[in-house]
Amino acid sequence: MGTFYSIVIYNSKNNPQDIQKRVDRELKSFNQIFSTYIPDSEVSKFNDKESTEATQVSTSFLHLTLSAKEIFDWSGGAFDPTVMPLVNLWGFGPKAVKNSPSKEVLTQVLESVSMNKLAIDKVASTIHKKHPKTQLDYSAIAKGYGVDAITLLLMELGEKSFLVEIGGELRVVGEPQAGRKWKIGINRPDPEASSQDLQEVLLLKDRAMATSGNYRNYRQEDGFRAVHTLDPRKGQPIQTDLLSATILAKNCMEADALATAAMVLGSKYAIQLLENRKDVGYYLLVRTEDGKIAHRKSKNVQTVSKENSYASQ
After folding, report:
1. Above 50 in pLDDT, residue 160?
2. 3-state secondary structure of 140
3. Residue 125 CB-half CA count within 13 A
4. Superfamily assignment of 181-308 in CATH?
């Protein structure tokens, strides 16, 4: 996944080295399915196959694709893993580019972008492309799915109080101490801010959390800042008032995808949709018209003083 992972376990009866071996083995297998940086991974092979014939896929690949399609439909296409050709076009993939794409090239590439370009057969476990150049990039949902996979593994090992984090996406189970919730910090949305420079601290118990932001990963070109989050409906870097979107959900896969969808939608439309999801919480950092930073949060999100944080996002 090109990032780090961190696991904190309280009152474990398992050997830490044994746990780490199991986790590493699970993540290696996971990467072999979803990493676009591994040439022979399942998703890489799927992307390389320029054919409209049905492709047999693994159970995990099918499950993640079906979940992604649900969030694609819910968000009106704001979340769309078929954004892969656009990611490469704008230089946020494995290969760097010097210039923004022309209108003609962008229009051509957009013809292959949309989850509606995929036909998914749940019974046969197959997916076929309606456009031969459609490609998948699960970077906005796979980390969360990986967190859920490790969470399930630890639960199977009998762990009852722990935190799993992969590259900032995380999930907590149980309590760090009796009667206490996990305290998770949200970074101040500033490219110069350190990991300990917090904007807010959230309280979590048996919840997953994911944050998406654009204040660090971007490319400057002729006075235009191309951020890494792309609007798959337009094929261009988003223009939004949101600096970061943090989502709380029952599982990290969903939180991960919804955080990206919120960034694409912007605060107004994201809040309208998220308010209809009583099982989801949100904490949005917004750049106001006067240049200040303000927050918008749902009623089911609990916060605490920044000075009392002992785990950071």
Report:
1. yes
2. coil
3. 8
4. ApbE-like domains (3.10.520.10)
